[in-house]
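Shift notes (night). Ran TolC family protein while the centrifuge was going.
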Amino acid sequence: MKKLILVGLLLFGVAVQAQNKKWTLLECVEYALENNISVKQSELDLETAEIEKLTATGNFVPSISANIGLNENTGLSFNPVTNRAQTTTFLSSTGRINVGYTLFDGLRNFRAMQRAEISKLASQYRLSKMKDDISLAVANNYLQVILNKANLEVLVSQNEVTKEQIQQTQELVNAGVLPDGDLLEIKATDASEQQSIVNAENQVQISLISLAQLLLIKDYESFDIVEEGYGIVDSLGETSVDEIIQSAKENRSEIRIAEQNLELAKKDLQISKGANLPTLSAFFGYDTRYTNTPNFSNVVDPDNPTVIRQIGTVESTGEAVVSQFPNTFPVETPPDKFVEQLWENDGIAYGFQLNIPFLNGFNTKASVKRNKVNVERSKFLLEQAELDLESSVYQAYVDAKGGLKSYDAAKTALESQELAYEYAKARYDEGLTNAFDFSQAKLRYDNAQINLNRAKYDYIFRLKVLELFFGIPATELKF
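Came back to this:
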């Protein structure tokens, strides 16, 4: 009984620990890469490319097929062994093995193998890009939760100050130092802050649910993240935008995908041109047959071994010309054994087949032209991908630089508002200003703190986008 209680307590402890688990950003990214539906679909595309490669490899393997047939014929039928028509009921069986191999097909099989390799590589790049996109989305949602929690912490902290001010103002009103209107103003501020706290709590919960949905985690209530302190680091340093663009062109999947699509279009063009060349193939076939019909053989009559038959007439005299022939009669014998018939009735066929295309309704010509157009289109798409990447890097670089400046400005603004708030608080405590002016100074201070939080995490996210362009893997991003 004690053992059962101990096991139960251990299981309960594990369950509580699982419910209280807080996810780090790295855990969220790794979990998303393993479970996200879009990533799984990209992995299926990679498996499809593997199947395409298997099919291309199979084109170099001879085709081998075998078939066997078993028939029972009644009435007038052709005996498959004697090839004679006979009226009877008999059982027959035929078997065949065929082997075929393409010796030359205009290098289309070889080009198809190359195309399968390129297609597999393109699928790998698409999977890599999808993982980067998902990782960035997870990081964005994660930082949004951190931002909302930081804002909530600011509001709760400032509301505690407001509650202290309510108590202090109540004492001053009771002493006749301040009018009742100041107390009402502070209480109104407290009510407004309470409403803002509720809204901030809702924002935290909504952002947690959004992150959990992105991770495909259904336990929304117990899902939470580690509230790590993310500092501001200007990791750009002296790195120029040209260096980032060059690194992006060398590492980003967008360019690699466009390059592989161009190579696929070129291979399709080569394959279509191969249809204009002759196709040479070799074949080999082996067949045999069996039937249970009895055999018939001519046997000489021992009692009358020969007979005289007329074979012609002398034209001048009309005299008959006769000759002696063996006197035979048919005798039915049982069919040969199954194995014996397989060896006696077998045969082989082998040879070569050459197919020379001349005209097929301009289908090949149209296919070649169509693939030439696709090659040119793929070239334009590659060029456009490079331009888009440059534009995205420039935008991310400007956003990161601007985000850092915005953070510095918000930090300076917070310092000024904090001094203004402290000054207003001191004047209010001395009774030199009214509650409305104090509330306005406190509101500006609260907004400055929230603006600083927003600028901070906005800059962190934009910096991570830039680091991805620079070639840092999503799972190695440092926050």
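Strands lie at 63-78, 85-104, 279-291, 295-300, 306-313, 320-326, 328-333, 347-355. The chain has a mean pLDDT of 83.
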